[in-house]
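User: I'm writing a short report section on ligand binding and want a predicted complex to refer to. Could you take this sequence and heme C and write out the structure as tokens? A short remark afterwards would be nice.
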Amino acid sequence: MKIFMTLMTAVGLIFIGHAAAEEKLQSIAVALADYLTAGRAVVADNQLLINDPSKGDKGFTPEAYEEQVNVEFRKRAGIDIKSLSPADDFGRSIIAIHDSAREVVAEAQPQINEPGKEFKGFIPAVFGKKVGDRFYRKSGITVKQTSLKFRGEYNKPDDFEAEVLRKLESSGKGNTYYEETRFGELRVLRYVVPLYIEQSCLPCHGDPAGEMDITGKKKEGYKEGDMRGAISVIAPIKCVLDSN
Ligand code: HEC
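Assistant: Sure. The structure tokens for the complex follow:
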């Protein structure tokens, strides 16, 4: 908010339009982060099913994912995906990340449905990374999960994210961070929202710390409600959301 107010007093009318556009981009960034959080939660909720070696066909199809993410996203963001229109930037952005997620679940069907194997590598972090990559190709907007205690090198925070993560970890629960800044050549809006440990995360991230989880990595000993990391959004101020 500080940024908007300073700019408005400096340049007057011109920045009213600019601020409005930024506010719109900000609401897009918030909804994108909520969407990835919701999608990751759906995968976590289905983890036992996905890891069941006694089942072939798990029924965790793109349609099943869609139904569940609709509920989860409405709960978290208060938005009904089915009511969104591709005619505006907001609707187009959320539909694009939703399409990316359905594509990732569709592509993973052979992996998810492999019988006789317990751990198949389809977990919230892998899902999140793949959705982020696909969505980036559609939109030019980065949406990624990150953490100061990253297990996967691909989730490593950049300097900006590391500093913001430290701030968010030491500030109260429920805070988020955004800033208009530069990212290489681009002017971007950066938005960081904490990811908290839920019940479904505990088998891999909970107690006892140091014990191996099903993925072969060490559990961190987190408790429900602890900040595990964040979703980071990097949205170019002039981003193009093409429909393909
Ligand atoms: C089946 C085990 C499993 C479950 C369930 C799970 N995670 Fe993870 N999580 C992992 C693994 C493994 C990684 C590291 C990614 C990799 O190595 O590819 C990871 C990575 C992460 C990261 C990125 C930082 C890092 O360590 O690389 C965050 C943030 C995260 N998990 C949060 C959560 C949250 C929140 C939940 C619950 C909604 C959850 N995880 C559920 C296994 C799990």
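A remark for your report: The chain has one domain: 2-236. Residues 14-45 form the longest helix (32 residues).
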